[in-house]
Write a structure and sequence with these properties.
With about 160 residues, this protein is mostly helical. The protein is about 55% helix and about 0% strand.
C-alpha cells in the first residue's frame, strides 16, 4: 500500500470513529442532554445514559492503551467495563468523561497517522490484533452503544 492509499484509509477510519458517517455520532448523541436524565434508567433498558457513556469511555481507553503499549493492563470483563447505577452525576464528572473519550480518540488517531505504525501487522504483544482491527473495533463498539444512547433518549423523550 502506498502512502496515498494509506492516508486515505486512515482518514476514512478517523472519520468513522469521530463522525459515524451513516449514523449519529457520539457527540451528537449526548449533545444537549438535560443533566437530570443522565442517570435515569429507562423502563425495559438495563443502563442509564451515564453508564453507557462510561462504558464507551472505559472500553475505548482499554483499546487505545492496548494498541499503544505492551504494558497496558487487562481489565476484567464485565465488572471493570461497567459502572454501577447512581442517582446523579456532577457536571464535572460528566464533562471529564466526555473529554477523556475525545482525548483517547485523539491518542488513537495519532497511532493511525504515525507512518511508522503498520496498520495491518499484528501488534507484537497481542494475539493477532492490528491497528486496523482495533480502529474498526472502536468504531463498531462506539456505534453500538451510541445507538443505545439515542434509544434511551427517545424513551426519555429527550431526542430530536
Amino acid at each position: 500500500m502506498d502512502q496515498t492509499q494509506r492516508k486515505k484509509l486512515v482518514n476514512e477510519l478517523i472519520s468513522l470513529i469521530e463522525k459515524g458517517n451513516a449514523h449519529v455520532s457520539f457527540k451528537e448523541s449526548v449533545a444537549d442532554l438535560p443533566s437530570g436524565l443522565r442517570t435515569v434508567i429507562p423502563e425495559n433498558l438495563p443502563y442509564s445514559i451515564w453508564q453507557l457513556v462510561e462504558h464507551i469511555r472505559i472500553a475505548q481507553k482499554d483499546i487505545v492503551d492496548f494498541s499503544a503499549s505492551a504494558d497496558s493492563e487487562s481489565l476484567a470483563w464485565p465488572d471493570d467495563y461497567w459502572v454501577e447505577p447512581t442517582d446523579s452525576i456532577s457536571d464535572e464528572d460528566w464533562n471529564h468523561s466526555l473529554k477523556q473519550i475525545e482525548e483517547d480518540q485523539q491518542r488513537f488517531h495519532a497511532l493511525l497517522t504515525d507512518e511508522n505504525n503498520d496498520l495491518f501487522s499484528p501488534l507484537p504483544w497481542g494475539t493477532g490484533q492490528s491497528l486496523l482491527r482495533e480502529a474498526m473495533l472502536i468504531a463498531d463498539h462506539n456505534a453500538y452503544h451510541t445507538a443505545e444512547i439515542v434509544v434511551a433518549r427517545r424513551l426519555l423523550k429527550s431526542w430530536k
